[in-house]
Amino acid sequence: MTRKIHLALHPYGVGGPGQHGLWRDPSIAKNASIDIGYYIQQAQAAEHALFDALFIVDSQFIDPTYPAHYLNRLEPLTLLSAVATHTKHIGLVGTASSTYNSPFNLARRFGSLDHISGGRAGWNVVTSFDTGTSRNYGLDEHLDYTTRYGRALEAVRVIQGLWDSYEDDAFPADVERGVFLDPEKLHALNHVGEHFRVDGPLNLSRSPQGQPVIFQAGVSEEGRNFAAQVAEGIYAPAGPLDQARAYYEDIKRRTAAAGRDPEHIKIFIHAGPIVRATDDEARRRAREIFEEDNDFDRDLALLGRAFGAHDFSQYDLDAPFPDVAHLAERGGRTAAAKIIERARTEGLTLRQVVEASFGQKQSPFVGAPGTVADAIEHWFAAGTFDGLNLAFRNNEDLERFVDGVVPLLQKRGLFRTEYESGTLRGNLGLPVPVNRHTRERSLVDA
Amino acid sequence: MTRKIHLALHPYGVGGPGQHGLWRDPSIAKNASIDIGYYIQQAQAAEHALFDALFIVDSQFIDPTYPAHYLNRLEPLTLLSAVATHTKHIGLVGTASSTYNSPFNLARRFGSLDHISGGRAGWNVVTSFDTGTSRNYGLDEHLDYTTRYGRALEAVRVIQGLWDSYEDDAFPADVERGVFLDPEKLHALNHVGEHFRVDGPLNLSRSPQGQPVIFQAGVSEEGRNFAAQVAEGIYAPAGPLDQARAYYEDIKRRTAAAGRDPEHIKIFIHAGPIVRATDDEARRRAREIFEEDNDFDRDLALLGRAFGAHDFSQYDLDAPFPDVAHLAERGGRTAAAKIIERARTEGLTLRQVVEASFGQKQSPFVGAPGTVADAIEHWFAAGTFDGLNLAFRNNEDLERFVDGVVPLLQKRGLFRTEYESGTLRGNLGLPVPVNRHTRERSLVDA
């Protein structure tokens, strides 16, 4: 069996980063990001095209300079629960912060989505890098990187423990014997760790896929180790092909080193394909978008975001990159350290840093359907991804990809022609985890 | 215009308190409490009958003795978001604890439900009385009553502040001027209080009803004062008629004393009507249910729940009620103090206390449709409620009420014949709160 490509859709409503001007598009409703009808339509279109998942990103802090979609959008779990009953096969991956939610609440909410969707839930674990977020949750200081990732790892393990509170046969519901619950099959967790103390049990049973799928987004050292230990899916930026391949190999190696099957972590990279009838037309459209969305002042503010909302407009744009190393830990984002390193080794000015880091990137997937299918096949064969997390500017662009590129990928045996399963695990080729208590019991019995 | 009765439906899946044996009913699916299809069907049936709201209770702690519905149920906000897109008029009231959720997260989730439902969300604020809950959230000791209610009041005010982050005209989305957001209409909260520090703003605009409706359930002194200050709806136990009337008058008086219009707090009492073709048949059915559900040992465990999971089986059942006053604050429930007081003044044994406090209660709404309609009219005219929060044992019982009693209430002008509005506020006759910043601005301009 040929390895197959997985596809996810990443809807950006009125426009996220790299699509700041999207709200001006007359084909996009001005309230798309808070309109559940928009998300249902996106999910149904993606499901019609046999995509693996709808992927909903999130943040809990805004200022007025942020992209339109960030300013006013639905909370991912409420959003996905509403989408769930209007779809049957597509996975529903929601972002939630392990820094600003308690494990018991996250376990219940993702567990509930998993039941509502019949086993299609995924949790994209983030630790929240916006410094300002902490002040929406009563903390004076943003937690540093190591603390946030330590907390994230412990949170995932606690939550997975809570998801196993009930063994699969815990509810005989036997009227004759008068037994609804078999109390032997209900297990407290009694977790005491560095960041959390959680007794359990959770008041919710397991879903058809056993447990929601754990996703993770992040490229830092801490993020990679976290992924290797617990992630079953990754959402990564693409970058140039060599960089994507190195990242892919590194994650698979670390996962194997952590004692896990590297096939059980699926790496999705971000892609924003531009498909038109001809290569020329597609390239023209790409250039048009580049010019439309280019905004140096906005990108200067985005640079500040990576350094704890630092104001870079105070510096000379054409002087060497200022000494802001002390702010990198406060912002806490790996991006900050990378920016500093690159500015130093390449001797860049502030202006050059902004253009290199936040300016519009050219997608490698621009062209006629055949060209884009070729490029996707090339990147896939080169070992850069297991799946693509696709963002389109509007429905027409989504349709052009679905009608033009998907059939070519199918013809080449690179994409499914029907869903393998009704669960997210089933479609991603991930195993259903056996309940830990059932496993222990079977080990004792053996 | 005659005052009208409001009706809510309170689905209990496989059986909550007072319906412990419900899971044995062959007409109820054994997985009803985790089946979103069950809740959608209940909501649609209630909407078809023009009910004001679907009311979802909640808890975050279980032990194996708890009623079947408690053991394994969906989280209310995920549940209601899924129900929202399958209904058009009915209000969606979800329970969430102000003790174990951060205000920013609650504001986003209820705000999102309010958008998804087009302005039909309500938040039933609870402070969580199960002692064991604290150990699912990392706390050694359960917070005491006063702290929990102080925190609840501050949480509601913070959340209402966050819901006003955007004024209603904050998003001109004017392509010509290139203005999506008018930053003057976005407001940080910068709250610093005893329990919370929350900067804001919230990344979500207001819904068609302005803000979700605040409900509260509780009869303690703290609960009543909390209600008088911020609640717009109350869910109270019924008790005998005199007690319900005294409660009703007390709440309305306190609300007026707090400077609010007493019409802007709607008091719902719990009701479990039993409707049959004749009074005799209904009374027979009531007796049958009483006998089916009677379980002294279970009720003894329930008594323990009010005293911080204390084990009462260690005492002589026929000796005077034991001295457990020191446990009442730990359990923290007003019920505990009331039980002690009653045992003392009436000189009850432990067995008598259990039977009086947790034994099956006879509903005042038992009989043929005309009898039940008469009783409801009598209680309503006596000033005991604005609405009934109805629990039925199964769909047949719901249908008997809807088909038999509702048309009689309509004929008497006591219940609506069509929805007044598409929002929960509109149907409850509650005003849409003007955004506080818009109000301030208009005061300054005047």
From TrEMBL, chains A, B:
Its EC number is 1.14.-.-. Transmembrane segments: none annotated. GO terms for molecular function: monooxygenase activity. PANTHER family: ALKANESULFONATE MONOOXYGENASE-RELATED (PTHR30011), C2H2 FINGER DOMAIN TRANSCRIPTION FACTOR (EUROFUNG)-RELATED (PTHR30011:SF16). Residues 33-383 form the Luciferase-like domain. Keywords: Flavoprotein, FMN, Monooxygenase, Oxidoreductase. The keyword Endoplasmic reticulum does not apply. Belongs to the NtaA/SnaA/DszA monooxygenase family. This is NtaA/DmoA family FMN-dependent monooxygenase. The lineage of its organism: Bacteria, Bacillati, Actinomycetota, Actinomycetes, Pseudonocardiales. Pfam families: Bac_luciferase. The keyword Flavoprotein applies.
